[in-house]
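Submission checklist for the structure archive. All mandatory fields must be present; incomplete records are returned to the submitter.

[x] Identifier: PHF7 protein
[x] Organism: Eolophus roseicapilla
[x] Residue count: 282
[x] Sequence attached
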Amino acid sequence: CGFCQRADCNPEVFGQLCSQDGLCVHENCLYHARRLNQRGADEEGFYGFLFPDIREELKRVAQKRCCICRQRGASVTCRARRCPRTFHYPCGSERGCVSQFFGEFKSFCWKHRPVQRVRAVQQGQTLCLICQEAVAERLSYDTLVCPNCTSAWFHRRCIQGQALRSALHHFRCPLCQDMVTFQAEMFRLGIKIPDRDAAWEEDGAFADHYQRHSSCDTSQCLCPMGREEAEENGPWRLLLCHSCGSRGTHQRCSNLGEEVDSWECCDCSNADTGEGCSFGGD
């Protein structure tokens, strides 16, 4: 990335790594570069950030040092009054800075970041509602709570992953199901909630579920053209298990007659008789 000088591609931290026209930058670095504005349509440049503007911003920050790693190219500035701190987006995330993904896309250093003002008390050891591992004993940058029910606790990384999967149309507290108050608080705390439908609602999300099985799964496939060969008739006709549909065999590989139109795999056939079993050389 021209801004943070990292090649990491974890979308939950950096957003997408965009590369075109001699430029290579992280999505989140773009959105939080202090002097960079979206002057184009969404399909122009990267997310509306025009290539000439990106080059100009890269030139501007080339000599600005990150207050965390001390390397050049720092493009994110704390928006608190009179705070001079400037940093790379990923350095800020690792140090506990907050970059917001709404409105003016403001960023704040670890001294001036927004914090939760919720009265929430844990009863014994509290687990993250998403990963089911223990959270810290009090609210912090890495430990958040639902402001509505004050009973649902999360790791920041876990609720960020949930926000990216659920997106704006479905993101809500997993416990009390509140959406309005919950989303507003998560936005304020720097959780990125993309304005799109949930990942599971996108076209093709389940395309692999509808692909017909198309290979011979016998322990020793005899077909000279390979396991994927499937002819309409003859010894290399491919039959699928009539019970599960997830295993297949060539007619000859399971020693089936021409008249056989139905076949059942080992997993589905009768365990006592082994009828239809074509695996393991039986």
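[x] Structure attached
Curator remark: The beta strands are 17-20, 23-26, 76-77, 86-87, 98-99, 107-108, 143-145, 153-155, 238-240, 248-250. The longest helix spans residues 156-170.
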